[in-house]
Write a structure and sequence with these properties.
This protein is globular. The longest helix has 26 residues, at about 70-95. About 75% of the residues lie in helices and about 0% in strands. Helix 1 (about 1-25) runs parallel beside helix 4 (about 70-95), helix 3 (about 55-65) runs antiparallel to helix 4 and helix 4 (about 70-95) packs across helix 7. It has helices spanning about 1-25, 30-50, 55-65, 70-95, 105-130, 140-160, 165-175, 185-210. By secondary structure, it is mainly alpha-helical.
């Protein structure tokens, strides 16, 4: 139960900061988001692995570092945390938020942005948090947080910069239930981050060979 609670809390604060910076229009939002992910990783890494992202949990499971019995509870905790966070943003500000593709960008641009940056994020996580060669390191939170920070600056204006199905699910659900939006864009933030995460697994295995088994 501690692992699932940790996944819920970490995902909650990640999505809460994403939402608050989106609603208030903070220009340095990617910095706040990256820093929040970093500290949440340090908070929960020793308990749950600090995934806070269904795409990460699926990839870590396929890599062999998450038990099958934990996969669905991890994802459920992450989605619940995201929904609670989006609801909290609505309660605090009276406004909803939801990731969406940037105006004028074609579907291919959105697909490539979400796939490539999620691939980068998951590959970093697999290497710094699940590889015996980096076991016990003290920089894994920085590496993960800075990957998201860089990705948000690089492609956030193009795809919405989710790289995480929970970041799409919770806010879009609350936005739709509040009557402000729809589920039209949700598939972008479910399918493409998971695809990017899946691509990272065979690449990690090619990097590490027998060590990755």
């Amino acid at each position: 139960m501690a692992r699932y609670l940790t996944e819920l809390i970490g995902t909650f604060f990640l999505v809460f900061v994403i939402g608050m910076t989106a609603v208030t229009g903070l220009s340095g939002a990617p910095i706040a988001i990256g820093c929040t992910l970093m500290v949440m990783v340090y908070m929960g890494g020793h308990i749950s692995g600090a995934h806070y992202n269904p795409a990460v949990s699926i990839a870590v499971f396929l890599r062999g570092s998450l038990e099958k019995s934990d996969l669905i509870p991890y994802v459920a905790a992450q989605l619940l945390g995201a929904w609670l966070a989006a609801s909290a943003v609505l309660a605090v500000t009276g406004a909803t938020f939801a990731p969406a593709p940037g105006a004028g960008y074609e579907t291919l641009a959105v697909v490539l942005s979400e796939v490539l940056l999620t691939f980068a994020l998951v590959l970093v996580i697999l290497n710094v948090a699940t590889s015996p060669a980096t076991e016990g390191n003290s920089y894994y939170g920085l590496a993960i947080g800075f990957t998201v920070l860089a990705g948000a600056y690089a492609v956030g204006p193009i795809s919405g910069g989710a790289f995480n199905p929970a970041v799409g699910f919770g806010p879009i659900l609350v936005d739709t239930l509040a009557g402000e939006g729809s589920f039209e864009n949700l598939w972008h933030y479910i399918v493409w981050p998971i695809a990017g995460g899946l691509l990272a697994v065979p690449v990690f295995r090619m990097q590490h060979g027998a060590e990755s088994d």
